[in-house]
Amino acid sequence: MSKIVGIETILVQLPTRREHKWTGLTEPIGRYVLVKMTDDQGRIGWGEAPALKDWGGEFGRYFGESPAIATLVIERYLAPAVAGLEPGNFVDLHARMDSMVKGYPYAKAAVEFAAYDLAGRALGVPVHALLGGCARKQVAVTHSLGLIAIDEAEAEAAKVVSEGIRTIKIKVGVDPKRDIEIVRVVRNAVGPAVELCVDGNEGYPTPGLAIRTIRAMEAYGLKYAEQPVMGIEQLALVARAIDTPVMADESAWNAHDVIQIIEKRAAQIVSIYTTKPGGLYRAMEVAAVARAAGIICNVNGSVETGVGNLANIHLAAAAPAAVLSCVVPVSTPVEAQHGQAAGIYYKDDLIKTAMRFVDGAIEVPMGPGMGIEVDEAKVAKYRVETK
Ligand SMILES: [Mg+2]
After folding, report:
1. Span from the CA of 228 to the centroid of ligand 1 (angstroms)
2. Which residues, in sequence order, are CB contacts of 217 under 8 Å at separation 6+?
């Protein structure tokens, strides 16, 4: 097989369709680090670190990276560590990255996905084939309503449902009265057939407040309540007290966290990411541990550009445990946008062709590597200087 000979980092900033916020977020989404990996045959693979400095695990035990930090870690430590390696040797890739620097899962995930893309292109197979196969050919999309005004949420919910969306996630964790009201209004707007879930991003200060708030929301029908409070122990208190399944997100970064969640019976659902455990190889371990315990999963992300989102899509395609609809964008370049809102967070994207969105789901790309070409002219257009 070929060898990795070059790694370049590129900081990009995509323009957003509307402001997209959640509890704790302090900087606009879409300012992310791309990895462009080259092999000795001249092939190129792409990866992305959707680095968010203010997103993390409970009690500071994990934390996001800023774009500047991810760039530094990739350039100074990870690029030299993996130079000369065969892109398909993911075990060795992780061993080398981990022996060079502890932590920094966003930076590692970006390098690793570029290697998956490169290996898939070299072998002529899609990334999900390298992860074990194709558990599903469509990935149903959950549309996420950020912290926006209730009337705005009402209008957007009705619009995305008319475009095929079957599951809507509502960001909450701010003020119980507002949070219950937004669930009521969105339920009225979309009718009984659409599934609703709420994500507190650890925003409720006590399990008791979370329990009272979610119980009031249950009158409007909830599919699950995601991370209402901080901490596995607190989450377990909420999970025991409500009928709605609890999803662990900030509490579930890697496979070991899921073992703790199982021990404490803290959640019935785990949200897996490509970034939290440091890449697809590790994300498949998270999914395997969850599956062994009967925990179901979705794939969740950080509103990646098309590059990082294709990592999410291939993970969702390959992981048998990922039976729930996924909070992923429908990455669509401007040329293919026609005023739709379902899964659209950016006005443009970095991939040459739009993801195929049919009946509320993204069709998994079957081409080599990530399956859709990166548009290098767009990468140049949205490139910004590191700060
Ligand atoms: Mg979440």
Report:
1. 9
2. 179, 180, 183, 198, 225, 244
CA-wise closest residue to 47 among 34, 65, 62: 34
Q: Which CATH class is domain 129-363?
A: alpha beta
Q: Compute, in angstroms, the gap from residue 221 CA to the centroid of ligand 1.
A: 19
The one-character DSSP state at 35 is E
**How do the domains of the chain map onto residue ranges?**
4-124+376-381, 129-363
Distance 122 CA to ligand 1 centre (A): 35
Distance CA 325, CA 194 (A): 12
pTM over 0.85: yes
DSSP class of residue 360 equals T
Strands 246-248 and 269-272: parallel
**What is the Å distance from ligand 1's center to 337 Cα?**
27
Average pLDDT, the chain: 96
Tell how far the Cα of 248 is from the centroid of ligand 1, in angstroms.
8
Mean pLDDT lowest among 78-92, 318-332, 373-387: 373-387
Q: What is the residue whose two structure tokens read 């429908």?
A: 330
Domains 4-124+376-381 and 129-363 share a fold: no
Task: Specify whether domain 4-124+376-381 bears CATH 3.30.1330.10.
Answer: no
Joined tokens for residue 164: 């095929």
Could you read off the pLDDT of 191-224 as tens digits, one per residue? Answer: 999 999 999 999 999 999 999 999 999 999 999 9
- For the record, the structure tokens of 74 come out as 């990739």
pLDDT at 17: 83
